[in-house]
From TrEMBL:
It comes from the Eukaryota. Keywords: Membrane, Transmembrane, Transmembrane helix. The chain crosses the membrane at residues 38-59. This is Uncharacterized protein. The lineage of its organism: Eukaryota, Viridiplantae, Streptophyta, Embryophyta, Tracheophyta. The keyword Transmembrane applies. It comes from Lupinus albus (White lupine).
């Protein structure tokens, strides 16, 4: 009984570790995608907006 109990506890710990690993990798992928969309796209649009403003001012001042 004690041996079976320890084996089942070991299996439970392994399952919990697998679940933790799967969840952490999934969360990290989701965070990576979300952060990429939140930070990179506005920064790129901001840079292109600055370029548009600079080009606009440059062309209409001459």
């Amino acid at each position: 009984m004690v041996a079976a109990d320890s084996v089942s506890r070991k299996c439970m710990l392994e399952v919990i570790n697998e679940v933790k690993y799967a969840l952490s990798s999934t969360v990290s992928v989701i965070l990576h995608i979300v952060l990429k969309n939140i930070f990179i796209i506005p920064i790129l649009s901001f840079i292109s907006g600055i370029n548009d403003i600079l080009l606009y001012n440059f062309y209409f001042k001459w």
